[in-house]
Please model this.
Amino acid sequence: MKIENPTGTALYSIEKAIKEYRKLAQKNIAKVVKDITVDQCLVLIILEQNQNISQNELANLVFKDNASITRMIELMVKNDYLTRTIHSEDRRKFNLVVTEKGLKTIKLIEPVVQHNREKALHGLSLNEIALLDQTLHKIIQNCKK
Amino acid sequence: MKIENPTGTALYSIEKAIKEYRKLAQKNIAKVVKDITVDQCLVLIILEQNQNISQNELANLVFKDNASITRMIELMVKNDYLTRTIHSEDRRKFNLVVTEKGLKTIKLIEPVVQHNREKALHGLSLNEIALLDQTLHKIIQNCKK
DNA sequence: CTATTTATATTGATATATCAATTATATTTG
DNA sequence: CAAATATAATTGATATATCAATATAAATAG
Model:
């Protein structure tokens, strides 16, 4: 049984697409803010929109591991993007709050993020994007079973 | 300008899909071979099918950085999956050769890789997969410009 | 109410990602 | 041919990914 060239399959196109997008995103974000990564931007935006979520929930929203989130938050606190204080009702949890610097940063990167998405999806019809999303969700479900 | 929730866009579905697939792949591969990663498996398969390629070319085929490839190869040589010798005609290059252990490993993981792909794409029509691939390639091109 | 189980987060170990700087060798240009 | 340029790979620094083990606190069963 000869395996086909892995780089020829749709699954590798998925990998390639996300890598190219991340490269684009990082490049453009770096133009306006120097000390932040794409992942940290995403965390910032999510946290601003979802106050009072736990690290756990945050991890799920950004498709990351708990361990990764712990370390990202450490860094972001160190770089003054977030503050972290103990949750008063459940002492296992923490309150994650976006700082002033974090809020300013969000304002700076918002148009960049929009632009990146538009660039990546340029020339695709709404229908095409919807289909893409639909197919990807089927794959996600298949993998989870 | 309020940014939409990033997790709602097709681009994040791409990220989620590839992460779920990698998780599935790693889990199933670990069942038959313990000391190898998904990425290393891919490198093995590519190297068996493309003899005499440089690290550079290999990096492009697996969508990785040169630096990543250097470190992966170091590890794979250390774990006896590959041998690396200096290229006689261009002394900047190396000959990468899959070892006996590497070949045996490929035989072991081939059916697993097939099964993983089938599982991930289960229930999708050929047309649907082709469309997916096509749309992803548009995105890839958009990001590269 | 105590013992067990569950939930939240951290830590250690190892692998990979990415950028920038560097080394070594090849190729091209003047 | 010598100097400049280009190519292949490495290295250092830092960020993220993943698994397994652990610590702490909360919830629940008996």
Observations:
- The mean pLDDT of chain B is 92.
